[in-house]
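#structure-requests
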Amino acid sequence: MMTDPVADLLSRIRNASMARHELTRVPANKLKKNIALLLKAEGYVADVRQEEWGPQKHQTLTIVLKYGEDRTSAFQGIRRVSRPGRRVYVRHDQIPRVLSGLGISIISTSTGLMSDKEARRRKLGGELLCEVW
């Protein structure tokens, strides 16, 4: 039984990027799909597809990673902030800036997942899921 599917998603993306894989597959659910789509919108991954894969035809997310000219990853690091054992909630005026605005935070708000810039603009707080830089 997996206790933290978001940490699993971030670890799989980080490990595939460090190994210079072209893509990674993770078991699909709505939260993981929304996180991956937000990473795509912010330019950290190239593509996200939901498809059936494997002999049992399980729903998986295929995340195509993005690299630069010299095969460096589009992101330097990715870190889980709020964990099952220690939830981290922030108000809109307390959302931390990642590397002085060069990175993003992903926040789960009452109107869905969004980046820190969008949450500040809409004046929404919520659970600080992860940081990407």
